[in-house]
Amino acid sequence: MDNQVIMDNYRVRRLFVRAARLESTVGYMVAPKHLSSRSLGRVGVVLYWVPGHGGDVWAVQHDNEDIGVYCYTELELVGELTHINPQGERT
């Protein structure tokens, strides 16, 4: 996935992504629980990204609330969160 798709003026948009491949995590300085939450094919919402770590680290919250960390090259875009109006309708 193209890094520019995810970044919008240095802010992460609310994107649904899927872990399309798992690569090396050498250089990642994150809690072990976030490394163990990585799983191929999982879908989640991008929470934030941190530059460095041997490559940008993207925090993805999965449906069971755990957070896995991935490089943007491991992710594929599934969809973008749309605006929901006060009536609960997507616009």
Summarize the structure.
The protein has 91 residues and is mostly beta strands.
Describe, in plain words, how this protein is organized in 3D.
The protein contains two helices and seven strands. The protein has 91 residues and is mainly β. Mean pLDDT is 78; it is low at 1-12. A hairpin with a 4-residue loop joins strand 5 (57-62) and strand 6 (67-70). Strands 6-5-4-3-7 form a five-stranded antiparallel sheet. It has helices spanning 3-6, 32-36; strands spanning 7-8, 11-12, 15-19, 43-50, 57-62, 67-70, 75-80. Helices cover 10% and strands 36% of the residues. The protein has one domain (3-80): SH3 Domains (SH3 type barrels), CATH 2.30.30.40. It is globular.
Which key terms come to mind for this protein?
91 residues, mainly beta, 5-stranded antiparallel sheet, two-stranded antiparallel ribbon
Count of the separate structural domains: 1
Give the CATH level 1 class.
Mainly Beta
* Total number of strands: 7
Number of helices: 2
CATH homologous superfamily title = SH3 Domains
* Helical residues, percent: under 10%
Low-confidence stretches: 1-12
Largest sheet: spatial strand order? 6-5-4-3-7
Overall form: globular
N- to C-terminal separation? 25 Å
Strand content: 35-45%
Largest sheet: 5 strands, antiparallel
Please compute the radius of gyration using only Cα atoms: 13 Å
In CATH, the architecture is Roll
The secondary structure category is mainly beta
What is the averaged pLDDT score? 78
CATH names the topology as SH3 type barrels
What is the succession of H and E elements? HEEEHEEEE
